[in-house]
Request: fold
Amino acid sequence: AQSVTQLGSHVSVSEGALVLLRCNYSSSVPPYLFWYVQYPNQGLQLLLKYTTGATLVKGINGFEAEFKKSETSFHLTKPSAHMSDAAEYFCAVSEGAGNMLTFGGGTRLMVKP
Amino acid sequence: KAGVTQTPRYLIKTRGQQVTLSCSPISGHRSVSWYQQTPGQGLQFLFEYFSETQRNKGNFPGRFSGRQFSNSRSEMNVSTLELGDSALYLCASSLGDRAQGEKLFFGSGTQLSVL
Reply:
């Protein structure tokens, strides 16, 4: 069975600092990997996804993630945090037919001025 | 193009009642998925429908059911409500033309409170 672990339920950074949100997954087959963001009182929005090919994936709003098979990781980074990045971030994995996602527990990102 | 629309936005029910939530996907999308979000359990997959057929099912009791209509609109029903069913229920749609790994578009959810 697949699972997703997000290390750190809360992460706080200063505006302009590097953002690093960690995600590790377990999967018996090469997975599809996703990062979604959720702003207060809203649904989830896709930041980026990894399917196959290039291991460094670029997403929206300056975010990117690197797929490392040997480490079963898919960490999310952004070089410089902005106040508008404050939200909850979810890593997810999908395997098998269809669009069933298994989500990590989420990481709430706080950005200090 | 309109996004995923979920109705109602808020719902208050009492234990033992049943509830029906509605989801209208983005026009042209044929796959609709449902997720339950709670502070304790996080985001959990309920089921996915594609072309009116259930394609995947999560690990929820039979009190949770769903269906999809020919216009791709979907409903989920929860019977005999329990306090633990209080949650944000999110619907997501996708084109459905790929076997897997599609981008999901989420609605804003229905916040269900069971008293």
Notes: Residues 11 and 112 of chain B are 5 Å apart (CA to CA). Chain B has a mean pLDDT of 94. Chain B is about 0% helix and 50% strand. The longest strand of chain B covers residues 42-50.
